[in-house]
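W.,

You were right to be curious about this one. When I first looked at the sequence I had no strong expectations either way, so I just let the prediction run and decided to look at it fresh. Below is the sequence, 113 residues in total, followed by the output.
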Amino acid sequence: MNKDPFSNMKFRKALKEDLHFIVQLMADDELGKLREDFKDPLPQQYYQAFSTIDNDPNQELTVIENELGEIIGTLQLSFIQYLTYQGGIRAQIEAVRIRSDQRGRGIGEQLFR
């Protein structure tokens, strides 16, 4: 019987301590290299943005860890109140990133589920 390759992965709310890894993921593609400023230490604007996201009940920044506790992916959900659907709430998915050595394994798809 095949073991579920995602069973050892952990999805959790991002912490301030995760920010360095999250920005590194965002900067690790062709577009991200152009728009992100990944360096050590991180520029203060990333910490300010994280604080705003973290304190907003309509935002959810999530990371995915592998079985070793390493961050291998991230995504941000923004919950938006609408008048349509009788005042329904929708989620907008942003900043889905998977660590380059983990791409092509279906992890991004699993994040969406």
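Here's what jumped out at me. The chain has a mean pLDDT of 91. And, maybe more interesting for your project: Residues 10-100 form a domain with the Aminopeptidase fold (CATH 3.40.630.30).

Coffee later to discuss?

I.
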